[in-house]
Design a protein that fits this description.
This protein has 12 helices and 14 strands. The protein has 333 residues and is an alpha/beta fold. The chain has 2 domains: 4-223, Rossmann fold, CATH 3.40.50.300; 230-283, no CATH class. The strands form 3 sheets. A 6-stranded mixed beta sheet has the order 6-7-8-3-9-10, sandwiched between helices. The structure holds adenosine-5'-triphosphate (ATP). Adenosine-5'-triphosphate is lined by residues 15, 18, 20, 38, 40-46, 89. InterPro entries: AAA+_ATPase, ABC_transporter-like_ATP-bd, ABC_transporter-like_CS, ABC_Transporter_VariousFunc, P-loop_NTPase.
């Protein structure tokens, strides 16, 4: 696609005998945010390092702004240098420098003015500590400084590895408001995080990975549909209604109604116009629930494979393809 800022195509990478990433493909468009989700050791940081050009994948390609990936010297398809911003998982700068000196150092490297540094220091609430050595900073202060460093050059592509770890709720909200402003300028953002409820309102897409493989990719709505998880509706007197109304009876279990998005209008119409029920709560599966669903599905498919040692390699591949199919494990009411 023309406006893909990041395009990862069939990337596989090994560390010795260990396969850290397997045939990973995805794209992030300009002005969009993708959450990169997975268990510890799933391969998220490795993927980020491959996008940064710090690791060259064994197989596959990465394209940044339509051009080949050369890390910090990448050029877009228009021959313009690609500006990359990166916040690593563990922010570690030279700790005898002050906060301001660190930002001045990176500003000089990236050709950014000292005035911009002063603005960022103030915006990030670090003015009071700008002359203090980094070793006196708290975890959250270092994180804020790291984020300021990552966005100094108004990047085309921003890669954030666990950006909200150590941040208080106010600072996390500020970080996501900065991301929203950057997206308006066309910046593509990839965020690795385990804080799913925090990132959920801010994403355009999410990719869930496990053991170096892509389990699911899409918008929240697409992931919901792919997971087959149902919308839940609760209201008073539901058990009685379910007894007399066949539509509700089919959807009723454990004191609630469970249905797909396409059925929602019909259910709500039935409750309101037929039974005069207006006080109800509707809950859609959130990112955390969707994530747990795909992780559980992946775990059970790996167990199924482990329990069938007699299968040859070809049969295992075909069983795996079936287990990982979007339609495997779809729950029907
Ligand atoms: N330089 C390396 N040498 C050998 N193995 C490595 C190296 N870097 C990463 N790995 C292994 O690759 C796998 C993926 O690691 P990676 O850091 O990408 O995971 P992650 O998803 O970012 O995990 P976390 O959520 O814990 O940060 C892990 O099993 C890790 O031990």
């Amino acid at each position: 696609m023309e406006n893909n800022a990041v395009c990862v195509n069939e990337v596989t990478h090994h560390f010795g005998d260990f396969t850290a990433l397997k045939q990973m493909s995805f794209a992030v468009k300009q002005g969009q945010t993708m959450a990169l989700l997975g268990h510890n050791g799933a391969g998220k940081s490795t993927l980020i390092k491959i996008i940064l050009g710090l690791i060259k994948p064994d197989i596959g390609e990465v394209s940044l702004m339509g051009g080949a990936n050369e890390g910090s010297s990448s050029m877009s398809s228009q021959g313009v240098p690609v500006r990359l911003g990166y916040l690593p998982e563990n922010v570690s700068f030279y700790d005898k420098l002050t906060g301001e000196e660190i930002l001045h150092y990176f500003a000089a490297l990236k050709g950014v003015s000292k005035a911009k540094v002063a603005t960022l220091i103030e915006e990030f609430g670090l003015d009071y500590a700008k002359d203090r050595q980094l070793k006196t900073y708290s975890k959250g202060m270092k994180q804020r400084l790291g984020f300021a460093q990552a966005i100094l050059s108004e990047p085309d592509i921003l890669l954030l590895d666990e950006p909200t770890v150590g941040l208080d709720p106010h600072a996390s909200q500020f970080l996501y408001s900065k991301i929203a402003a950057l997206k308006q300028t066309g910046c593509a953002v990839i965020v690795c995080t385990h804080e799913l409820s925090l990132i959920e309102p801010h994403i355009d897409t999410a990719m869930i990975v496990a053991k170096g493989e892509r389990l699911a990719l899409g918008s929240l709505a697409q992931l919901r549909a792919l997971s087959g998880l149902k919308i839940q509706l609760k209201c008073e007197g539901l058990a009685d209604l379910a007894e007399k109304e066949p539509l509700l009876s089919r959807l009723y279990r454990h004191d609630a109604l469970y249905f797909d998005r396409e059925q929602q209008d019909q259910v709500v119409r039935c409750l309101t116009s037929q039974y005069g029920k207006f006080g109800f709560s509707i809950m859609e599966p959130g990112l955390a629930e969707i994530y747990r669903h795909f992780m559980a599905e992946s775990e059970s498919s790996h167990q199924a494979l482990a329990l069938t040692p007699s299968l040859n390699a070809q049969s295992k591949t075909s069983l795996k393809a079936r287990l990982f199919s979007p339609f495997f494990g779809m729950k029907n009411v």
